[in-house]
Amino acid sequence: xxxxxxxxxxxLRHNARQSVSTIAEQVNLSRSAVTDRIKKLESNRVxxxxxxxxxxxxxxxxxxxxxxxxxxARCADVVHVFHTIPEIISCHGITGEMDxxxxxxxxxxxxxxxxxxxxxxxxxxxKVNSPATSLRSDHQVFSxxxxxxxxxxxxxxxxxx
Length: 161
Prior knowledge:
Elements: H1 3-14, H2 20-27, H3 31-43, E1 62-70, E2 88-94, E3 100-106, H4 109-120, E4 125-135, E5 140-143, E6 152-158
Antiparallel strand pairs: 1-3, 1-4, 2-3, 2-6, 4-5
Helix pairs in contact: 1-2, 2-3
């Protein structure tokens, strides 16, 4: 990745919807060169996607961390399940009895329950704990289990804005 790729990425970070012409002007390259570079950055997975930032009023109202234990030899063998759930914001491999720490934001406690049930129903999942749930309105944390400290070993999903 050279200085032009970095400049293009910087422009896209500020506004991913700006035209290729505008980016080309800013980085002093032709439109075709910028288009080719963006395609190459996407195909090489340097740019993994683009996201929409919602206004505060449109954001989810319930968030929770799920600690998940699975029976697979590697976390990579089970995380495909989480890619199908858009409310999963992040998924990390962790130390300790549990294998994964999954952060979920959704619109209701009912949806949170549905997500947990879906994860728990997967063949390779042994156990799902949800030690803390927060409602956005007052950021009060409701705890059903003791919260533990984990060391993050790997990152499998990161959809944080």
